[in-house]
Design a protein that fits this description.
InterPro entries: Ubiquitin-like_domsf (IPR029071), WLM_dom (IPR013536). By secondary structure, the protein is of the alpha/beta class. The protein is about 35% helix and about 15% strand. A hairpin with a 3-residue loop joins strand 3 and strand 4. About 10% of the residues have low confidence.
Length: about 325
Amino acid sequence: MSEESCVILTVIHHGKPHAYSFPSNATLIDLSDRIHEELGIPQSHQKLLVPKLGLQRVPFKDPSLPLRSLVNRKITLLAPTHEELSRLAASISEATRPRKASPISSAKPVRTRDWQRVREDAEYTFHTLRPLPQFPHPERSLAFLERLRDDPGIRAAMRNHKFSVPLLTEMDPAAHTSASHEGVSRTLGLNRNKGEVIELRLRTDAMDGYRDYKTIRNTLCHELAHNVHGPHDQKFWKLCREIEKEVSKADWKSGGQALTNDAFYEPEPGSSEDHIDEGGWAGGEFVLGRGEEKDSNVDVETGQMSRREVIARAAEARFKKGKQVDQDQNKSGEQ
């Protein structure tokens, strides 16, 4: 076949040119057959984009269209490659392959609320949280106290020992601090009348931040032990270590691991550094923000609470929480 009697066309597929030679009487259907033979693309997947003719696909509107009329035109083939078609066929085969039916797993029972736990959490807790209003950002101190109250380890220890504390408040950093030739001694916590009031030193001495959470939590464990034992005797330290271990074990946020690899805190006699406290103390009235003793009832609006007021407010809080628990339980039973 001489060059004068043949038609040469170039087809662009995925940016790659493919030149084909045809007899002068070849038609559009001959081009489609050649593409199938050379590129392995079935006619059903071929789309030929031809200038002025538009998109051509099988069945062609004019299959007898002579190819000589397409000379010098840019013909673009829109079709997947042979490899793409193979991957598609494999995917379809895999998707339609019969599979062994998976065993039907048994339905899991719906978790119901532990109302006994709810009642205990409402009863054995810190019923009132009180930051010091005279210092900057008391809302941050309140959030710190709430974190301690809601700590899963603290909650577990409170339930185990049936501790109910009317008031948890923060300590004035300037109070309960003494200086001597040996250095500065700071008290980190106080317990009034075996759990009537627990006071914690939350802020730093410079009032520019808060102390380490885990240190304060250990201090709280120490003060909770004073709910049972006042002096730092052997019985006290045994209970203190027991509470600390319970708090650490029940703290799911820490994976039930101990806070450190060290032994639990026990100050040495005569230490002039930061210490927990001087033992449980009793008598007098608690004045919020001052840690002083007062022998009369005082106005709560001024930020001061007497022993009678603390107990009354705690009893009221317990009554309201118990009533709310009963209402929630009744609603749950009606559903």
